[in-house]
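Database export, one record per block. Field names are fixed; values are copied verbatim from the stored entry.
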Amino acid sequence: MLFKRLNPFISTALRFSFYALFIGTLVLLVTWEAKNHIGKHLFSENSILESLQATLLFLTAASAYLAGHINESDSPLASLLVGIASIAAIREFDFALDRYAFDGAWQTMALIVAAFTFAHGWH
């Protein structure tokens, strides 16, 4: 990667700057939404915060999946991380599952994903 070719100090400074900028952007988005909300609920199901949560859970699951396939020794841990992030994402979309499937659908789906995650981790 690009960071490995640079001086270790410069590489660390660039990564720190990128992470700080990323986290700072997330904090600013949530703060902006909190200050400019309309309605009786501060953060609704259609808020920026909900979208950020879903996006970060997806990125977490995708990163863990790739890490497990790149390094086979990390595969059991990566499988657990993918399962946990997937269960959290299912929980985040409980409002849609309750509306379009049935009440309590997220619990059923989360149990199925947990069973598959446990079985894959055990294997």
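Remark 1: The chain has a mean pLDDT of 84.
Remark 2: The two ends are 33 Å apart (CA to CA).
End of record.
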